[in-house]
Amino acid sequence: MSNKLSLPDDARQWLARRYENQHKAWLAGEGAWPLGVPLGSPVEADVARDYAVVRGWAEAWQRYKGSGRIVWEERRWARLGQQRIPVRLEFDAPAEVAEAVGQDSRWRCENSGPRWRRTSGITPIRRTRNPEKFGSGRGPEGNRSSAS
Predict the structure, then answer these.
(1) Is residue 15 part of a domain?
(2) Is 68 left (phi over 0), alpha (psi -120 to 50) or beta?
(3) What is the rounded distance in angstroms from the CA atom of residue 71 to the CA atom of residue 63?
């Protein structure tokens, strides 16, 4: 093969390394999306030389049920005619990558914690222990006197 053909398990291993190395940056809103995982790109000579391997590879991607989406391209070859082959697996967001590598609950947990609040600019609302300190608890009108 002139180009290594990646099977779904190969892509998952690549994504697991990428997730481990990048998820903290992703939590901070960094990273370029969509994220694409190249699946390999056989040429006509590869297919002619080892048809069973290339066919098995394409069928493995046809059966893929994981997160992300597979991008397929049409190829027109002189001897083999028109063929549709998978070229990359794309993810639109870090949560999809986390799901693909079995880290979705970890991602949700880390994405909802204090680090997310710091990077999002959202200030958490704090509850007070003494609501009577702020009046009757009925809102701003509860602090006004009834005499006009």
Answers:
(1) yes
(2) left
(3) 14
Give the structural domain span for 34: 8-120
Helix (H) or strand (E) holding 62: helix 51-62
Task: Give the pLDDT of residue 115.
Answer: 53
- Does residue 139 fall inside a structural domain? no
What is the C-alpha separation between 9 and 77, in angstroms, rounded?
A: 28
The string of pLDDT tens digits covering residues 75-112 is 998 888 898 999 999 999 999 999 999 999 989 888 88
As for how many domains the chain has, the answer is: 1
Q: Considering the entire predicted model, what is its pTM?
A: 0.71
Q: How far is CA 59 from the centre of its chain?
A: 23
Within a domain: residue 143?
Answer: no
